[in-house]
Amino acid sequence: MKFFSAILITCTLFSATAQASSSQAWNEQRQQMLKACLAASQFKDAHVRSKPAEFDDQVGMSALLIEGVYPQQHMQQRTGTELCLYDRRQHRAFVSEWSPEVK
After folding, report:
1. Fewer Cβ neighbours under 10 Å: the N or C end of the chain?
2. Cβ atoms of 83 and 95 closer than 8 Å
3. Are 97 and 46 in contact (CB under 8 A)?
4. Number of helices (H) and strands (E), helices first, in the chain?
5. pLDDT tens per residue across span 4-54
6. Per the confidence metrics, is the pTM higher than 0.85?
7. How far is residue 8's CA from residue 43's CA, in Å, rounded to a whole number?
8. Could you give the residue ranges of the DSSP H alpha helices within 1-103?
9. Partners of 54 in beta bridges
10. CA 29 and chain centroid, separation
11. How far apart are CA 76 and CA 40, in angstroms?
């Protein structure tokens, strides 16, 4: 019985370590995404406007809304929104202007 108790305790410890590691890896991936999306943005004073939308691993993409100020002088400091698609496999970000309005 002591043998099985020892195995159970060992499995529990390894399970907790694996979950902590996975959580840390997930946070690091999210920080990479934020950094890449903000760097890819065309806006001045770019900042995150939404929680990430995580797509299935088969797709390998995450989506994030970025808000900031248009850098062009004729835009007269207006704010705008961009959609950032982040490729988790290649660690690359792609942005496009985003308008939540349906036209």
Report:
1. C
2. yes
3. no
4. 1, 5
5. 344 434 444 444 444 455 888 889 999 999 999 999 999 999 999 999 999
6. no
7. 53
8. 2-40
9. 62
10. 7
11. 21
CB 93 within 8 A of CB 84: yes
In the chain, helix, strand, coil percent, each to 5? 40, 30, 30
Burial class (CB in 10 A: 0-12, 13-18, 19+), 95: buried
pLDDT of residue 18: 44
Judged by DSSP in three states, 67 sits in strand
Token readout for 67 is 């808000």
Contact between residue 29 and residue 90 where contact means Cβ atoms under 8 Å apart: no
pLDDT in tens, 74-97: 999 999 999 999 999 999 999 999
Cβ(66)–Cβ(37) below 8 Å: yes
Q: Measure the CA–CA gap between 78 and 38, rounded to whole angstroms.
A: 18
Compute the residue count for the chain.
103
